[in-house]
Amino acid sequence: MNIKAYFDDFATWITNETTWEGFGQSLFRIVVIIIIGQLSIWLANKTIDRVVLNRSESRLVMQTRRMTTVGKLIKNIISYAGYFIIGMLVLDEFGVQLAPLLAGAGVIGLAIGFGAQSLVKDIITGFFIIFEDQFAVGDVIQTGTFKGTVEVIGLRATRIHSWTGEVHIIPNGMINEVTNFSMHNSIAFIDVSIGYEEDAERAITIIRKELERFEDSNLVKRPEVLGIQTMLSTEVKVRITAECLPNMNGVVARSLNAYIKKVLDDHGIDIPYPRMVTYHRNERGGDPNGA
To answer: Does residue 100 sit in the same domain as residue 9?
Structure first.
């Protein structure tokens, strides 16, 4: 068949009314599939938000943390599955046979599973992190040298946002040890230095009395003066502790330092500072008494 015959067949096909009717019907079905698929994913996500995420008031704190994280994971799984089904249905409209495609995808997936063992490890570790409630979205954690707030726990990786602005994306399989700063109340402690020239007992009594007026929204219990912690060559250190909300110990410690500094200034209690003592020797090397 020569080029003219090919051109005639193409012209006949493109000018055929049946061709455009079939194309229009396929296009309409594809648009409907995409719209219904997107709507289904949206409805599923909204249902999860309403049932799992928006009822935290009726659950314990630990249950709320776990359900929030599991809810986000389920939403990701539904999105992946939904887009996969939409893609398969669209390919079917283009005449692609799905059975051989799915069979081939299964074989390829098996081969990838053997070759990408780290990916499988990441996914399995991610499930254990969630269901063992090692940490959840919103927790402040440290793993290795990375510390920050957990933003996302995905099937493959965890995203941590540090307080300085960096975003760390860590594969779940690399998370071997985790320190969670958000599961229990934290303790803020400061050591107040008092010079030996001052009456330590008087200073402790004043600090203890003034701390009854100390207010901070992050406090769980009133600050407590434990007493003299150490005695150094030029000062004594008085330790003060305060139980506060999780990961708020740094904020409370800074507030306590400022408050106690003002208390000491108001009561005339000096904080130790470096001193220098100078000895003058006799320039003639004789007896200092003039003998």
So the answer is: yes
Tell me the residue type at 212. Answer: E
Return the structure tokens found at 172. 């779940």
Question: Residue 70 is which amino acid?
Answer: V
State the DSSP code for 280: P
* pLDDT at site 59: 45
CA 205 to CA 200: how far, in whole Å?
9
* Contact present, 214 and 162 (Cβ < 8 Å): no
21 lies in the same domain as 106: yes
Q: What would the two tokens of residue 12 be?
A: 């006949």
Dihedral of CA atoms 199, 202, 203, 209 in degrees, nearest 10, equals: 180
Q: What order of strands is seen across the sheet that includes strand 179-180?
A: 167-171, 157-161, 146-153, 140-143, 179-180
Number of domains making up the chain? 3
Q: What is the pLDDT of residues 66-125, one digit of tens each?
A: 666 677 777 777 888 888 888 888 877 777 776 776 676 666 666 666 656 777 788 788
Per-residue pLDDT for 194 more than 70?
A: yes
| pTM (global) more than 0.70 | no
Q: Which residues span the domain enclosing 142?
A: 134-180
Whether residue 147 lies inside any domain: the answer is yes
